[in-house]
Automatic annotation (TrEMBL):
<dbReference type="InterPro" id="IPR029058">
    <property type="entry name" value="AB_hydrolase_fold"/>
</dbReference>
<dbReference type="Pfam" id="PF07859">
    <property type="entry name" value="Abhydrolase_3"/>
</dbReference>
<dbReference type="InterPro" id="IPR013094">
    <property type="entry name" value="AB_hydrolase_3"/>
</dbReference>
<dbReference type="GO" id="GO:0009860">
    <property type="term" value="P:pollen tube growth"/>
</dbReference>
<protein>
    <recommendedName>
        <fullName>Alpha/beta hydrolase fold-3 domain-containing protein</fullName>
    </recommendedName>
</protein>
<comment type="similarity">
    <text>Belongs to the 'GDXG' lipolytic enzyme family.</text>
</comment>
<dbReference type="GO" id="GO:0052689">
    <property type="term" value="F:carboxylic ester hydrolase activity"/>
</dbReference>
<feature type="domain" description="Alpha/beta hydrolase fold-3">
    <location>
        <begin position="26"/>
        <end position="242"/>
    </location>
</feature>
<dbReference type="InterPro" id="IPR050466">
    <property type="entry name" value="Carboxylest/Gibb_receptor"/>
</dbReference>
Length: 270
């Protein structure tokens, strides 16, 4: 428990492995439009178990405050406080905090991005945790102007603009529109990502209405001159496909995350 007063807590997943070297850490932020789900949601419990065993890595799943009771920037504060708690308080055998990856899906992908920016700006405050990379799975970004994919993909499963508009109204500060920097990260000053993790993986689904914003996010990171920025496209995937373990893309994603971490971790692991 990080802070009982705001129900901020962590759930740890350790793989059953006899790795000779300490394992990397994945700090995971769940999705749900900032308004639903939690680290103890069944879908995320299953996914984080799979992520820990398939990578292998120690997964730290963060339970953060939800909107509309708690609006932006509460979630970003919780996310960075979880990183600081891991840095200052938790001691785990066989874990390498110097190889730490921030990860999240949908709203959690948005959260992971903003926590990565804060971590880069406050690097001196972190003594043990080193953010090695960012894994952004179908991140939830927005803007006032509709994209082509948002207008075209009406009626696709899982997500629609009516639901996302409601989520933004519930999450963003009172009086803000979808061009607020919490939602519209495409307005991000490239200089803001100077200290951003070089290794960044952006995952896009071909049947996700949010895909245009995700592709533009990838392009924006590329403009920063960073190396190790990767775009993974699953052409037949809907939003949140990875929570459906029977879909063929789910094990593919887990394998791609493993490969990404092995490529960019400071040293190899078994």
């Amino acid at each position: 428990m990080v802070d009982p007063s705001r129900n901020l807590w962590l759930r740890l997943y350790r793989p059953c492995t006899s790795a000779a070297t300490p394992l990397p850490v994945i700090i995971y932020f769940h999705g749900g439009g900032f308004c639903t789900m939690g680290a103890d949601s069944r879908f995320y419990d299953i996914f984080c178990r799979s992520l820990a065993s398939e990578t292998p890595a120690v997964v730290v799943s963060v339970n953060y405050r939800l909107a509309p009771e708690h609006r932006c920037p509460s979630q970003y504060e919780d996310g960075f406080d979880a990183v600081k708690f891991l840095d200052a308080v938790i001691n785990l055998d066989g874990v390498d905090l110097g190889r730490c990856f921030l990860a999240g899906d949908s709203a959690g992908g948005n959260l992971a991005h903003h926590v990565a920016v804060r971590a880069a700006e406050s690097e001196a405050a972190l003594k043990r945790v080193k953010v090695t990379g960012l894994i952004s799975i179908q991140p939830f970004f927005g803007g006032e102007e509709r994209t082509e994919s948002e207008m075209r993909m009406v009626g696709v499963p899982v997500i629609n603009m009516e639901a996302t508009d409601w989520a933004w109204r519930s999450f963003l500060p009172e009086g803000s529109d979808r061009n607020h920097p919490a939602a519209n990260v495409l307005r991000l000053d490239v200089s803001k990502v100077v200290g951003f993790p070089a290794a960044t993986m952006v995952v896009v689904g071909g049947f996700d209405p949010l895909q245009d914003r995700q592709r533009s996010y990838y392009e924006r990171l590329m403009e920063s001159g960073k190396e190790g920025v990767e775009l993974l496209v699953y052409p037949n995937a809907v939003h949140a496909f990875y929570l459906m373990s029977d879909l063929p893309e789910t094990p593919m994603l887990l394998a791609d995350i493993r490969d990404f971490i092995q490529r960019h971790a400071a040293r190899p692991f078994n």
